Amino acid sequence: MKVTAIIVEVEAVKASQNQTMKKLEAMQKEIEDVKAIAHKARKNTKLANAARKAIEGELRRWREREHKMQADAASRMLAESKIPMGLSPRNYLIQKLKQPPKKIELRKLENARTSLTNLCCIYHKKRNKMDYGSPCLTCEMQM
C-alpha cells in the first residue's frame, strides 16, 4: 500500500509540475509579446522623432527664406524711395510723424464749403416745397 500511495503522490506532483510548466510557458510567451510591442514602439518613436526633426528643419529653412524675401523687398523699397540710407524704416516713420502736417490749400477748403452749402440748399429747397417755410440760413447768407 505504501508503494501505491507513493506512486499516486508522484503522479499528482507530475501533474502539478505539468500545469506549472504550462503556466510558465504562457507567461514567457506574454513576456516575449510585450518585448516585441515595446521594441516596435521604440522603433516608431525613433521614426517619429526623425520625421519631426526633418519637418522642423524644413520649416526653419522656409522661415529663413521668407524673412530674406521680406528683407530684400524692404531694401528694394528703401532703394526706390527717396529715404536717406542712414534711416531704417522705423526711424523714417518716426521722423515722418514728427514733421508738421502739410497745409491744406485754401482753394480746396473753399470748394468743400461751397459744395456743402449747395447740398444744404438743395435739401432745404425740397423741404420748403413741402413745408412752405423760410429758406435755409446758409442760403440766405449766400444771397
Describe this structure in words.
This protein is mainly α and 143 residues long. The chain folds into 2 domains: 1-86; 104-143. Helix content is 85%, strand content 0%. It contains 4 helices and no strands.
Total count of helical runs of at least 4 residues: 4
Domain module tally: 2
| Shape type | elongated
N/C terminus separation: 148 Å
Please tally the β strands and state the result: 0
Strand content: under 5%
Largest sheet: none
Please write the string of helix (H) and strand (E) elements: HHHH
Label the structural class.
Answer: mainly alpha
Enumerate the spans where pLDDT stays under 50 for 5 or more consecutive residues: none
- Rg measurement, Å: 47 Å
Mean pLDDT across residues: 78
Please bin the fraction of helical residues.
over 70%
